[in-house]
Amino acid sequence: xxxxxxxxxxxxxxxxxxxxxxxxxxxxxxxxxxxxxxxxxxxxxxxxxxxxxxxxxxxxxxxxxxxxxxxxxxxxxxxxxxxxxxxxxxxxxxxxxxxxxxxxxxxxxxxxxxxxxxxxxxxxxxx
Length: 127
Description:
Blueprint: E1 2-11, E2 14-24, H1 40-48, E3 55-60, E4 63-64, H2 89-99, H3 106-115
Antiparallel strand pairs: 1-2, 1-3, 3-4
């Protein structure tokens, strides 16, 4: 269950989220819809801890999003995800593994790159 209590976020004097309260039950499907600037990204980023919660609370399965164990229940794929062009495919995979707090497993990385036929090009810069 995801629970948001009194979430408020401002950029300077502009309040984007004002006392947002939301409960999403297990297995419930939810869509976040709104015009540009309505606060959709701010809400998601606050939920994920990418933006610090200025006021209010975000809980996943009763765990505040400020605790590390919260991350084991969440996956996030941003709309504009991109790899770092100055790094190779292999370096990108190692970097994102470490960023996620997972030790880079060279055997697993090799398996994944072979599966998508990129093992031979693993040291090439992404483009």
